[in-house]
Amino acid sequence: MGETIVLGVILAIIFYELTDVSPGGLVVPGVFAYYLYDPRRLVLTLCVALIAWLLVRAFSQVVILYGKRLFAVHVMTAFLLGGLFALGVHLFDLRWLDVPLIGTLIAGILAHETSRQGVFKTLAALMIVTLLTGMVVLWL
Question: What is the DSSP letter of 61?
Fold first, then answer.
């Protein structure tokens, strides 16, 4: 796993330097590339990140959020959403939805980058760097 994340960080830095678009943070593409074999986890993590982004965006209409506070609120919101999802799955006995989240920190970082750049730029860059990382890992 470590090699995939390091390779993802290297490719994310190169991509950012060439395009000035962050692929969802430095570690996110490497972690996503590591879990390419399990698309349900990727989709769940993306959904949590996007919902966290929307909630924080709505919340920021009422409260002034910027810098480290904004990042912390994104991570805490993703953490809360991940916990609520897991709780809902167990309370309502939805075993077919019992998919673990890749990580609440990963979803929070992705939500924060989405708030900085927008959904399309962030997700397009994430997809490109994740697939590049996955192809290089398979090639090696």
Answer: T
Nearest residue to 12 (alpha-carbon basis) of 136, 115, 133: 133
Spell out the alpha helix ranges (H) of 60-140: 67-91, 104-117, 119-139
What does the angle CA 46 – CA 49 – CA 54 come to, to the nearest 5 degrees?
A: 125
If you ran DSSP here, which 8-state letter would residue 26 be given? S
- Phi, psi (5° rounding) for residue 103? 175, 135
Report the distance separating Cα 33 and Cα 11, nearest Å: 12
Q: Rounded CA gap, 36 and 24, in Å? A: 16
Average pLDDT of the segment spanning 35-58: 93
> Confidence band (pLDDT; 50, 70, 90) for 100?
confident
Sketch the domain layout of the chain as residue ranges: 2-139
Between helices 104-117 and 67-91, what is the axis angle to 10°?
130
Judged by phi (left if over 0) then psi (alpha if -120 to 50, else beta), residue 42 lies in alpha
Question: Taking the model in full, what pTM does it have?
Answer: 0.89
